[in-house]
Structures are given as structure tokens and as C-alpha cells.
């Protein structure tokens, strides 16, 4: 196509020729204005025939001749573009057609294209190019694929329908367009053409994502011809919630329009997040938190800088010693960023990703960033799609490998355009996306919906204080909430790998104890040893269910220099939580000794998730009875910030205990089970073996393996935990130790709808954790 363009320029007398069909070429075609059937220059006919062949249409078998075959193909091209049949083609229109004919634009539906997008594309061409003749608008591709050119065409069409003068229409989302949208694009009804363009924008931004993490597609019967607000509204409300916009109100409002049209959306809206390359003192953090016009909650700061302080381009953007503590003490959460000159293609290779992953891990530990935190690695330029494939995705595979080999202390996220974020998340496993939305002109932000896992959207930059520049970032609720505590030191004492090494040492002692202890296996004794770390997990109630540990085990371990209290907690590598070892040991021992299935609950499960459900129920009825059961569960159960008898670290320990005991029994499709495995092997496989991806999807595995992935099974099983009483069941007999002293507050005494609300709330807690995976 470049060669054909230059050939046409040569034939039209343009010199020098260039690989671009620009304004000069357009004017030369207009000036000559000869349709192919009237063209006398054989070389120009050859160019037109060749262009048809390249576009997938039949040209003449005789390249220098324009025959009926070529003319029929040209008519077919007109139809595919969306032009009105039999409408006269003037000089201006022929120049636009010729430009499209000699570009890489496709007019037949390509693989992956869809009919609805094609019809919208044809409508844009027919109304706004052929009929209205917006000067700045060229024919858009009609290949059925939403792209940068199509998005630009949509913007130009919106500007026209808003009443902007045709001569000023430029596709730029500037003050004039924004003001026109605020006055003419709002309300419960719009002109038919504006409503059509609004629906087209919804179609192009589909899918969006609901609160359960499910994709929601916009599926009207006909985007172009019908008044479909009743069909459009559910999708729009979901889109608004996903985009962190107010829901409800007028059908059409400025913020929704802005979010549909440009990646930055409404840059004036309030935001909880910010990021900066400048040093942030405790006082400055407090000023950000207490900013009267826009109080912030979270700030992004760089872990390191690739340049030496002596370099003339050195920015001093890296966190300073003690700065992370000052930020948190100043009342802000911190989300760590990492960028080593990620502004050009050559900066992205697997090797560089691996090297920078190691550096990021070391720097995060140096600053006391706790395990499980997300580090965002930056792609700070407009990476093209094929470069994402060749370089960017391999770079992030390198990052991932480095972080895993460093002990899986941290998870990683990606900063970049919408396209970069979505592809890196799906193809390399980035947990969260930080979208460079203020770069709204980047191709990676044009023609792509918001990534499904976005946590921050950077929408504008400004000077917060003199010399202190700030980027303004929308933060999505229930996504990455940054770092709110720091490890005083990170000498590895609480690392998961050291915890597994500790378990191996215990197993080694137990495995060499002659005839062995009078319990089922090394696994049982190891779990009991972990449980013995805290007295409240081996009192008479626990011993009645699980038995007491064999004294010889304690003596043998002591002789080897190992005491149960040597390790009380460990840091989970995928969640920002410190897990109580004894809680995990008790829950896993119960699940391993008495595995449950179906809707019946065993006494062993009372040692883990089922017992904690009873604890949560009692807290609700004793302390939070004014709240509905669902509200209580959503706000308290699994919380890391609210006082809870079923806290987030307990929830993680319970789920891990079930999953690991399930694996130890060989119930997950892996070979072996029982004595064929050791707890340390199971822990390593669960947390580090990428092929299984177990701890990364711990809640999904728990929900599917224990409840068959069925909401009804989950609810029935939880109801059995709360309601079934059997005097001959150790679990049911023991419920009196969990449930409220006031018998009127027992599960079988409260109104059924209140109990159902509590069960629904527990289901919401689990499914929300699943959607975060």
C-alpha cells in the first residue's frame, strides 16, 4: 500500500513521494478527479486494479484496463464502506475513497469482527462522510473491529451532533466538546442521532464487569434503529459502577459520556488515589489526606530509579529511607511502582524483566513492604499490539519468574495503556492494572475497553504544591488497596519458605522416631505440633475432638532444638496478611482427620471454616443485631480492619487448611495421597508450583471442591452448620460452646429471613474473594 501510494503521487506529479496519503495527495486527486471508468492514465488504472486486489476484491485481469469486473468490484467496495447506492461521487468523495483504497483499512469483515460493529462503521461513513462531509473526518474501516480510527470517527460524529461548527470539529475532547456534552448531551432523552451514538459507544466499550467479576455484554437487538433505553440502562448502570461513577440519575450524563469516549473520562472528578515522582514527607502526606478539595487515601511511589545521582537526567524519584513509614504515619496507603526507563521498546525483554523483578523484590524488602503487596511495573509509552506480543508480555514473564524465585513475597501489577494492561494481565498473570488513562491519544487507549482488573486509572496531572507534581488517579473499590503497614525488618523470619523449612525439620524428627507415634501418620503429628504452638488450640475441647499430641513427639523435637512456639505466624505470599500457625494447624488437622463432603458437616470441619461461621454468627447476634445478616457478613466477616471473630487471616487459614488437606488425601486429581505425601511438600506445591496455581485461586478451589461450585449447595451446607442438631453428633453437641448464650438468638429461633440473609452474606464474602482471583 505504501508503494501504491507513492506510485499514485508520482503519476499525479508530486515530488518527492512519501509513504503517506496526506493532504497534498488528497488535493491532487481532487484536482484531477477522474473516476476509474473515465481515467486515461494506464498507470493510475494499474494502481487502482492493484489496490482492489490487495483489498480482497477482483480487479481486471488486464492491469492497464478498467473493465466490468473492476467496476463491479468498486461498486461492491462502495457497499461495504456503507455508501448510499447510486449516489453521485464528486471530487471530494472520490479523494476520500481513494485515500481509503490505498491504506491498510479493511472494508470486508475480518476474523474477529462482528456485524454490529460493521453496521456502526458503515453508518459513520454514510452519514458523516458521504452526507454531512465533516472536513476532518475520513472513511473509517468497516471490518467489524473497534479500532483507533473508528473511535476517532465516533468522536467526530458526536461533536457534529452536539452542534459544533463543522470547520472546528477535530476529534479532540476539549473544552468546547465537554461543555456541549454537559448542556446538550444530558437528560433523560436526546436527539435520535445522539442516542444512537451513545449506544454505539456502549457497544464499543463492551464488555463491562459486574460486582461478581463476570463480564456483562451490551446486547441490544439493533444498536442503530431502536429506542432502547430499557435495554441499555442495565448495562449502563453496570458500566458506571465498574468505572467508579455514580449510578442512577439522568439517563445520559456527562461523566458517563466522558468515560465512554476517552480513557481519562471526566478529569475533574474526585479521586482517592495519586502518584508522584517527588519525595513525600509525613507533613505532605497529611496535606494530601486532608486536602479540602479532594482528600486522598492512596499514593504511588517508585521503589527505585535506574539512573545514578550524578546523571544529568536523574530525577530522585525513588523512595527515600523512612519515606514509606512517613507516608503511612501521615495517613495514606502506599502502592509501590517500579520503572527502569520503560519508555521504549528495547527496554522490554524477558531478561530485563527478570533482572528488574529481582531488583524490585530487593527494594520492596528494603523499604519494609509486607508480603503479598502488589508492585506495579510500568510500560510508559504507546506500545503497539505486535510489540506487546514480541516484547512486553515476555518482559512480564521475566518479572513473574523473578518474583516467584525470590520467594513469592510479592504479586505484580502492570501500568500502561488499556491494551497493555488487559493483555499483560491475561497472558502474563498481572494481578492488577494501573491504567495510564490520561494518555487518551495513545493507540492502546483508543478502541479498547477498560481492563477487567483495573485498580487505578490515572486521569490527569497537576501541581499540588509548588515543585510537587501529582497524578490524579481514580481508585476502584474492592481492588488493590495498597500498603497500610510495614515490616519493621525483613530478615526472612516470617517468610513462607522459612515456614516450610520449619515444617520439614519437624517432619524429619517425627519420621525417625522408631515405631512412630500412636497417630495415623507423620502428617497428623506434624499438624498437631503446629496446633500446639498456642495453648488455646490444645485445651480439653480441642483434645476431645483431635486428641492430644504424643509427648514423645514434643520431647524428640525439643531434643532437636525445635519448640512449637518457635513459629507463631507466617506471611502469606499472595495476601497482605500474617497467618496464625496454630489456627491453620488445628483447621488442617480437623479436615485431614474428618474430611467433609456434600451438605453434611463433620466435626473436623468445626475445627476450621464451620466453627468460624458459628463464631461469626454469635458475634452478629450478640453485638451487631441491628445490621442485616448480609450487611454484617460483608462488613465484618473476613475483614482485616474491623474487629471480627472470623477475620481475614482466619478465613485464609481455614480455606488453605481445607485445600491442603484435600490435596493430602489425593482428592484433587493428583496421584497419591495420605502417607504418600508430606505436609511440607503439600505447602510447597500449594504456594509455589505455578502449574496448579492453587494459592492464587484458593477461594475458587475451596468453593469448587467443598461445595461443587454450587450456590445452593453452599447455602444448604451453611444452614446445616447452623441448624442441624443431633445429640449423638460431636459437632452438634459442641455447638453450644460456639453459639449465643441467649437461646432466643440461636439460629433455629430467629426469623428465617434473617438467617437466610446471614447465609447470603457469607456466600457474598466468598464469591467476592473469588472474583478477586
From TrEMBL:
Alphabetical list of CDD domains matching this protein: GH25_BacA-like (cd06418)
A Pfam family: Rv2525c_GlyHyd-like
Domain of life: Bacteria
Name the UniProt record assigns to this protein: Uncharacterized protein
Annotated source species: Streptomyces lincolnensis
Source lineage: Bacteria, Bacillati, Actinomycetota, Actinomycetes, Kitasatosporales
